């Protein structure tokens, strides 16, 4: 475990946003590292380290590696450290920031997005000045969030929505982009998030790297900020609803196929909470693995994890004891997702055998 003196804190480096206290510091190797304090009394630090350990075991390449750390603040504050994934001449931008820039330029994609966004901006809540800036009655951040919540709906929590907007952003800024690779990495991320019950993959936790050298490109940043996984951020497991948004991360509300095959107006369908939060996600993942052998191999590994073996190896690797209660929570989280996969697959096969539609349109 790393022991960090808060005096190492880089006062010139901006601290990342989020609910956990954190700061950047420079290690003896000259690299930038981020220390992030665990959230309250929850084991989000274990979530970060266990996730990166799992990624390594699964053969995932694009992820941030976390280690346990303590900071000598007023006392020894527990948390994690990770090395910055940015190289020289590189910067990063969150997907949320991309949406803000596109909205300002009337270039948002999907659902007549710009017309709907204009409605919000012209409303009483978000008044515009003569030059198009927001008044003190609201700010652009609130307006974007409101727009995506009310109009983005099905589409905004989707891989294809991310890809469409990132592609426009790249064209706008003359950036080279391999959109097929980005989409493949996003699908991998969604698959991991689902089986890990990752609940924090919001639009600011999907980052892109801007390469400012000869390449002048944009690419998906490594997976990071995985502390809210396997229910390790749940305070009261007894009253916890595993169908809630906390269990599903990036595809938390609805999935990519929801808009094209079901439609937004099918209230009976969207009121079915289980399908809304799980069924379409599983369906999407199972459709994607038909197209990608590597993703299928990952899916097969994720559906057959031996958690006890992973726990034991993790404890030896990190000299960290996972208590029985925590093992049970992680196991419960994983088994809940596996149960959903099995139940959905069984239902799908039954309907296919009877030549019935998987999802009812009326």
Q: How many beta strands in the DSSP annotation?
A: 9
- The share of residues in helices is 40-55%
**N- to C-terminal distance:** 57 Å
- Write down the overall mean pLDDT: 75
Total of DSSP H or I helical runs spanning 4+ residues: 12
Our estimate of the beta-strand percent is: 5-15%
Structural class: alpha+beta
- Counting structural domains, the number is 2
Largest sheet: 5 strands, mixed
> Nearest-angstrom radius of gyration?
21 Å
pLDDT < 50 stretches: 124-129, 131-138, 149-157, 242-271
How are the strands of the largest sheet arranged?
Answer: 1-4-5-3-2
Name the assembly state. Answer: single chain
Note the overall shape: flat
Helices and strands, in order, run as EEEHEEEHHHHEHEEHHHHHH
Could you characterize the architecture of this molecule?
- By secondary structure, the chain is of the alpha+beta class.
- The protein folds into 2 domains: 2-86, 2-Layer Sandwich (Phosphorylase Kinase, domain 1); 87-362, no CATH class.
- The chain has helices spanning 44-58, 95-104, 113-121, 140-156, 159-172, 179-195, 256-262, 267-270, 273-289, 293-302, 307-318, 324-353, and strands at residues 2-5, 22-26, 32-37, 66-72, 76-83, 90-94, 176-177, 207-211, 217-220.
- Strand 8 (207-211) and strand 9 (217-220) form a beta hairpin.
- The longest helix has 30 residues, at 324-353.
- The radius of gyration is 21 Å and the shape is flat.
- Residues 124-129, 131-138, 149-157 and 242-271 have low confidence and may be disordered.
């Amino acid at each position: 475990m790393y022991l960090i003196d808060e005096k190492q804190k880089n006062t010139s480096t901006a601290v990342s946003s989020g609910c956990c206290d954190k700061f950047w510091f420079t290690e003896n190797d000259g690299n930038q590292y981020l220390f992030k304090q665990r959230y309250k009394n929850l084991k989000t630090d274990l979530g970060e380290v266990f996730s990166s350990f799992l990624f390594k075991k699964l053969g995932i390449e694009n992820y941030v590696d976390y280690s346990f750390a303590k900071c000598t603040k007023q006392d020894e504050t527990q948390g994690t450290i990770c090395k910055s994934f940015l190289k020289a001449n590189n910067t990063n931008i969150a997907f949320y920031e991309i949406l803000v820039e596109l909205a300002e330029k009337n270039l948002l994609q999907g659902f007549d997005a710009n017309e709907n966004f204009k409605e919000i901006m012209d409303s009483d809540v978000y008044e515009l000045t003569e030059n198009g800036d927001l008044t003190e009655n609201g700010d652009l951040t609130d307006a974007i969030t409101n727009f995506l919540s009310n109009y983005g709906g099905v589409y905004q929590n989707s891989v294809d929505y991310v890809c469409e907007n990132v592609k426009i952003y790249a064209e706008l800024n003359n950036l080279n982009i391999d959109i097929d690779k980005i989409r493949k990495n996003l699908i991998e991320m969604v698959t991991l998030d689902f089986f890990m019950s990752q609940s924090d993959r919001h639009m600011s936790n999907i980052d892109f790297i801007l390469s400012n050298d000869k390449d002048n490109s944009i690419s998906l940043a490594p997976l990071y900020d995985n502390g809210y996984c396997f229910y390790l951020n749940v305070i009261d497991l007894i009253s916890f609803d595993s169908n809630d948004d906390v269990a599903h991360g990036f595809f938390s509300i609805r999935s990519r196929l929801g808009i094209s095959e079901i439609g937004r107006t099918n209230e009976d369908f969207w009121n079915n909470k289980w399908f809304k939060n799980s069924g379409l996600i599983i369906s999407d993942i199972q459709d994607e693995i038909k197209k990608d052998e590597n993703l299928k191999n990952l899916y097969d590994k994720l559906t057959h994890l031996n958690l006890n073996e992973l726990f034991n190896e993790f404890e030896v690797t990190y000299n960290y004891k996972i208590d029985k209660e925590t093992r049970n929570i992680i196991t419960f989280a994983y088994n809940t997702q596996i149960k959903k996969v099995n139940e959905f697959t069984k239902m799908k096969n039954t309907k296919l055998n009877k030549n019935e539609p998987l999802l009812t349109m009326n």
